[in-house]
Amino acid sequence: MTEMRAGLYLGERTVAADKVAKPVAGEGEALIRIAYAGICGTDMMIYFGKHPRARAPLAMGHEFSGVIEEIRGASSFAPGDRVVIEPTLSCGECEACAAGQFHVCKTLRLIGIDQSGGFAEYAAVPLHRLHRIPDKLSDIHAAVTEPVAVAVHTVRRSNLKLGDNVVILGAGPIGLLTALVARQGGAHQIIISDISPYRLEKAKQLGFTVLDAKHASVTDEVASLTGGVGADIVFEVAGNQITAKQMIETVKIQGQIVVVSVFKQAPTIDLAAMHFREISLTTTRCYSNDDFKKAIVLMRDGTIDVSPIISHLLPLEQIHEGFHLMEDSNASLKVLFQL
Ligand SMILES: NC(=O)c1ccc[n+]([C@@H]2O[C@H](COP(=O)([O-])OP(=O)(O)OC[C@H]3O[C@@H](n4cnc5c(N)ncnc54)[C@H](O)[C@@H]3O)[C@@H](O)[C@H]2O)c1
Ligand SMILES: [Zn+2]
Ligand SMILES: [Zn+2]
Question: The domain 154-283 is classified under which CATH number: 2.60.40.200, 1.20.1250.20, 3.40.50.720, 3.40.190.290?
Answer without folding.
Answer: 3.40.50.720
